Amino acid sequence: MSDFLRRFAHSFATLDKHNLQLLNSLYSEDIAFTDPLHEVHGLPALRRYFAELYSNVSHLQFDFHSFDAVAEGEGYLRWTMSFHHPRLASGKVIRVPGCSHLMWHDKVYRHRDYFDAGALLYEHVPVLGRVVSWLKRRMG
Q1: How far apart are CA 62 and CA 29, in angstroms?
Q2: What's the superkingdom here (predicted)?
């Protein structure tokens, strides 16, 4: 268990569109952030990414389940993201499990998220969602 990971998760869970300045205390200026849909380099670009993310949802919450340090300055967070988007799933809550791989010194300089992009987005788009769900059933 890592105190750094617990503190990071606690602070990250409090983020919203009104307090994105908290990103400055979590991430280094040269942050490299990657998820299945985006790749962002540098703290200013990360702030823009989060500002856009929070402007498109009416609710976004992260619940962290595990905090696993694997080496000095490296670890994983397991989480569930819950959000409402007015144009997805008829505005109902969408929940997506995921995992973050973090590397840090005093602040995080590498953040990579792993989650099912279909469960996050594609499955909730009319027509496309049915196709993605069908493909997942056929391949699973």
Answers
A1: 23
A2: Bacteria
pLDDT in tens, 24-69: 999 999 999 999 888 999 999 999 999 988 877 778 889 999 999 9
Residue 69 in contact with residue 78, Cβ under 8 Å? Answer: no
Alpha carbon distance 54, 138 (integer Å): 34
Alpha helix stretches (DSSP H) within the chain: 3-13, 23-26, 43-55, 117-120, 128-139
Four-way CATH pick for 3-139: 3.20.20.450, 3.90.1570.10, 3.10.450.50, 2.30.30.40:
3.10.450.50
Question: Residue 123 is encoded by which pair of tokens?
Answer: 């499955």
| Percent of the chain whose pLDDT exceeds 90 | 59
